Amino acid sequence: MNTVAVLIFGACENHGDHMAFGSDFIMPYELARRIAGKYENILIYPSLPYGVSSHHKDFFMTISLEPNTMINNVRDILQSIVSNNIKRILIINVHDGNIAPIELASRIIKEKNPEVVISCLGSWRSLVGQIKNFLMFGMAWVIEVKPKLPRCWL
Question: What is the CATH number of the domain that holds 8?
Answer without folding.
Answer: 3.40.50.10310
